Amino acid sequence: MKVKSAAEQLVDRLITAIALGALLPGQKLPPEREFAARLNVSRTTLRDALHQLESLGYVSITRGRSGGVRVHSTWGPESGSHIRSMLLPRWQHLTWLFDLTRSLLPMIAGIAAQRRTDEHIRKIWAAVEAYEKAVDDRDEMRTADHTLHSAIADATGNPYYVSIDSQLRIQLTFGTDSLPYDTDIRQRALDDHRAIAHAIEAGDSARASELTLHHFVDLAEKPMLRLRERVEAAGASESS
C-alpha cells in the first residue's frame, strides 16, 4: 500500500473536518501561517494540501490583498474514500479519546462550579454572549466557543485543567479547533452554553457535569459516529 504524503494526509483531515461541518461552505480559512500552526504542519504541506483541495473542488483560492482560501463544497465524489482513510485507521484512538473526554470535561465543569469566582462568572457569560452574537462569522463563533470552554476550565483555578481542555479540543477536531456545526447544532449549543453557565454560577456541580456530558456526546461524539456510518455505508455500496 502506498504511504500517503503529509499533504495527502492533511487533505484527508480537512475533507473530514469539512464533512463534519467544522469548516463550512463560504468560510474563509485563516491566513496560511496561522492555519499551519493550528494544524501543526509546515506551511509547504498546508499549501500543497490546499491546492489539492482546490483541484478536487472543496476550496477556492483567490490571490491578491482581498484574496484567500474559502471552503466551496461539503461533499465530493471521493469524500467517502478520503474520510475512510482518515477515520477508520484512527477509530480506536478516537474511541479512547471519546472515553477520556466523557470523563474529564464533566469533571472540569463540576470543579468549576465549586471554585468559580465572580470574575470567572463574568468571563463565562461574556463568552456565552459572544457566541450568541457571532451569527454569520464562523471564525468568531469558533473563538467564542473556545473562549467559553477555556473560561470554564480556568474557573477550576488549576492551569492543568485548562491545558487538558485545550488538548482534547485539538485532538477531537483534527487540529482545526472547530467542532461540528449546522443550524440545529448551533441552537443546541446556545441552549447548552447558557444552561451550563447558569449551573456553574449557581454552584451546582452535578448539574454542570451532567449538562457538559450531554453537550459533548450530542454535539461532538455523535456527529463523528454518524459520519463513520455514512462513509461505511457508502463504501459497502461502492463495493457491491
UniProtKB/TrEMBL annotation:
InterPro entries linked to this entry: GntR_C, TF_FadR/GntR_C, Tscrpt_reg_HTH_GntR, WH-like_DNA-bd_sf, WH_DNA-bd_sf
Keyword S-adenosyl-L-methionine recorded: no
GO MF assignments: DNA binding; DNA-binding transcription factor activity
Keyword line: DNA-binding, Transcription, Transcription regulation
Domain HTH gntR-type: 4-74
Keyword DNA-binding: yes
One Pfam short name: GntR
Highest taxon of source: Bacteria
Name of protein: HTH gntR-type domain-containing protein
Native organism taxonomy: Bacteria, Bacillati, Actinomycetota, Actinomycetes, Pseudonocardiales
